[in-house]
Amino acid sequence: MKYDFDLIIEDDNSLSKIIRQIKDDSVVLEFGPAAGRMTKFLKEHLHCKVYIVEIDDESAKKASQYAADTIVDDIENFKWLEKWENIKFDYIVFADVLEHLRNPQNVLTKTKMLLKDEGKTIISVPNVAHNSIMINLFNNVFNYTPVGLLDNTHIHLFAYNTLKEFCSFAGYVPVIEDAIYVNVGENEITALYNQVNEKVQKELKSRIYNNVYQFVFTLQKKSYVNMHSVELVKKILPYTNDYRFEVFFDKGNGWLEENSVSYFFRPQNRCKFVIPVSDNELIKQIRIDPIDCAYGTRLEEVLIYREDKVEAIILDEVNIETNAVNWENKEFLFVTEDPNIIVKNINWTGVLKIEISVSFIEKEQLAIQMLENKKCLNARLVQDKRLLNEELGRRAKELEHRMDVINQLNSEVTEYKLTIDSKNNEIKLANEELDRRAEELEHRMDVINNLKQKLIKK
Length: 458
Description:
Blueprint: H1 14-19, E1 27-31, H2 37-44, E2 49-54, H3 57-64, E3 69-72, H4 79-83, E4 89-95, H5 104-111, E5 115-126, H6 131-138, H7 160-169, E6 172-181, H8 198-206, E7 212-221, H9 222-228, E8 233-234, E9 243-250, E10 260-265, E11 271-276, E12 285-289, E13 296-305, E14 310-312, E15 320-322, E16 326-328, E17 331-333, E18 341-343, E19 353-361, H10 363-457
């Protein structure tokens, strides 16, 4: 029995992802339980009532001890549909089963008859478009294996888009899309990236879902989803451990690969990278390439460790240059396949290591978030502009009133000035008249004095 393995619920595998979605005390129909490792867990830990359909006698015998009822038969004979027609299941499970069927479309379609209106069908299938397979196809190699992606008992193959269509044709909508990821070179297929040239490697790594090993979809009936506007959740990461995080050190001769440190990683809510530093006295600046594709990045923190202290770099326009199309606070929106953030104006002498914390957001989501931020900012600016215009209007009216007062005062001053000028002119004329009369008086006094002199002489 090649599918008789122990189940470790804490592991990140397809069965664990399926089990984590099933609620306690549920009624479950499980197709292809093999030796019953999931059946046992559902019964003993979640107290579920599990009905099973298994084609292999020996496996069915093992699994049946945990089942409420068992059918030992080919799924596509549909005995289960007749026998359990009066049962409505909370969950129907196909864990790595559909790819083994001759007509999985027909089987999946008929399951709706036994599923509660709000019930869920959970399926897991291998991804035939995994890069391990693509590398071999590029090299004209296609080999089946005893187990895994190209299990020699697989009849039907699925990639993401075909799986979506497959579910839709069966009358289902994937309400949760999840996946299991396995890197090239870390699975049962003999394939490595160095078996193709660098251009092909880049193209392969740029493909979405290239490291998805299995798709794990939770389905609900189209009618129920449409009637209740069920939220659709997409957990699948378009790219996984093929992401590269890289830091370059400019030691006076630019950005050279020989002066860089890189890591392959899977984007999470927050990733932390610790980069050792050598020849720190030569470093002029550093360049952080947070990811090797167009993505949204939040540079949470950059710490530099010296022998005696730890410093946090201030992430502002003084210390940062970037090719992001948008940059708000610590969030960078990249549309280039080679995003970078340059950290400059820092004294690197004595730095022993750098600790960089980043988180990643799909660029569409970050773009929407930034747009919403801009809308809020614009709304505030419009409000501020309105208030400012109102204040300017008030002050303009006040200024206009004051100008009227000033103009009135100026007019009065002008009138006073004219009056003063008139009075000054009158005074001038009076003074001239006084001067004339004084001269006349002086002349008369002279005449009188002359007459007096003449009289005295006589």
